Amino acid sequence: MAEMTDEEKKAQRAKELAAEAKSVKAQLKQCDRQVAMVFDLNKCLGCQTCVIACKTQWTRDEGMEYMWWATVNTQPGKGTPRDWQQMGGGFRGEEPRAGQLPSKKDFGEAWDFNYEEVFYGGKGNTVHLKPSGDPDWGPNWDEDQGGGKYPNSFYFYLQRICNHCTNPACLEACPRNAIYKRKEDGIVLINQDRCKGYRFCMEACPYKKIYFNHVTQTSQKCIFCYPRLEKGVANACARQCPGRLRFVGYLDDENGPIYKLVKKWKVALPLHPDRGTQPNVYYVPPISPPRIDEQGNLDLTKPRIPTEYLKFLFGDDVEPVLETLKAEMAKTKAGGKSEILDTLIVYEWKTLFGPFTNDPATIAPRKA
Amino acid sequence: MQCTKVSGTADQLLDPAAAVWAGVPAETLTMAATPLANQPSEYIKASRDEKVIGKCRSLNVQSVHNGTDVFFRLSWGDESENDKEVVDTSMFPDGCGVLMPVASGDTPIEEMGSKDVPVNAWFWRANYKKDEARNTIARGLGTTEFSKTSPIRARGAWLSGVWNVVFTRPLSVPEQEKEAVQLAPGKTAKVGFAVWDGGSGERAGVKSFSKEWRDLAIQA
Lengths: 368, 220
What we know:
The structure holds two protein chains of two kinds. Chain A has helices at 6-29, 49-58, 104-107, 115-120, 169-173, 200-204, 226-229, 236-240, 257-264, 307-314, 318-333, 339-345, and strands at residues 35-40, 71-75, 91-92, 95-96, 156-160, 179-181, 188-190, 210-213, 218-221, 246-250, 269-270, 281-284, 290-292, 298-303. In chain A, 28% of the residues lie in helices and 15% in strands. Chain A is an alpha+beta fold. In chain A, the strands form six sheets. Chain A has a four-stranded mixed beta sheet. A two-stranded antiparallel ribbon of chain A has the order 2-5. The longest helix of chain A is centred in the first third of the chain and has 24 residues, at 6-29. The mean pLDDT of chain A is 95. By secondary structure, chain B is mainly beta. Chain B has a single domain, classed as Sandwich (Immunoglobulin-like). Chain B has helices at 10-13, 42-47; strands at 2-5, 27-30, 32-33, 58-65, 69-77, 95-101, 119-125, 134-138, 145-146, 153-159, 162-170, 188-196, 208-209, 214-218. The A-B interface holds A 10-11, 13-14, 17-18, 21-22, 95-99, 101-105, 107, 169, 172-177, 196-200, 202-204, 211-212, 214, 217 and B 35, 37-47, 86-90, 111, 141-144, 201, 203-205.
């Protein structure tokens, strides 16, 4: 056999290295179970309590000011960070797809307010409370702007956290193997000791849910409240949600609401499934109010929220889901019972959280 | 490559503008992009172009020692100074590094050493604190680990489109036997170099490097 040329040797070595890297990545992705969330978009009132619950629990330290691991944005809208849906990332087939690095301005910087002046400076009657500078973007800038034209205007809220994907683009991107899925529950974490703040994960995440901490010089993100879960307590965002719309549990728990909504009844869908990361956060899509025609009459033939827009967000499967939900509603209108709707209504709050129903007041607070 | 013996204290020689450096011959090394095909991330491979990465194509290296400490002065052209303070998500600092195998034996420079023969990398970044440099050990691509303490100091100055960075460290660091290369007058060491252009988003393995080991003859 002829000896390999230098070029052939290099190519051969590159293949070997790729195979090694692939096997390491496969191990980092491997998990025995997967925790997941379902958000019912029909119940969110946009109160931002989840957002603040997360903020106060996890991102109060210096370097984390601009971080909002949990966000709620009005749709249609530019979202957080601004225009994240146009920033690429994820996968095209098996191939990773290049993504952009959002700037702090895109996320919306933490504003300073003139609290001193207004509350303690004796100017409460003359000076308005306002952010310093002249901000032109923030994490909830386009709140309630929505889409459509009157009288067919529409909007709905979209809650977002890290999707704790089954095929995380961030994990795939990290050249230091600092990102991994926890074996016991599939939560995606960034090992802060291994992370060097290179931010390839931020580029690669198609959901733009990773933040860079300029103090620690590392990347950080939603940790699915794993220290709470370990104590049987649901995530802060879910536990504090007054709308009872954030379901938490194991994807394979056949008695839990997640399994039923996602696998059994198939009424909850991942966001942008086309990005190829297989998210573990699912959404019950919003049911449209009826359209109003030019004469001011209800037009039940066309949904107020354009189906194309919902398909853009949740893929083609959104149509059968909406059909199922409508059929279930018709069933109850006719006096029947619907297990799906009963589950979504959540008569008893504990049914939201699978095995994570312990009282957070019973566990020790986080050490400062 | 020669590491000539000079007189001068470590504090004097750490200054990239110190007069002594003007009399030390520089070796000009051709720099190249690190092989994209070897990157330990399919994302990096898919999102980068080897023709574009490795902004620094030429590096001047000077090396001296004063009997107790060794010095490397690295100079390269860089139109922009990036970034003294990395405060935004999209900012990356300029930086450079010196690489040496920790033990004897063949070890691939383009793979950051191997499990059998680790490499010792000395890192300087434009955003590090004054005179800060970090000591790392690597056993292959993506494996660099900072050691708890660093015996290395470095000082960089950017002037009119040129970075001048001086690294220094005691020749011998017995307390870091496993984490750092041990040098001595009269010995020869293998050495390589890397440069990151922060303004082009270079970081991690996305950088330019000196392609192969050079023998560094440390004057007795």
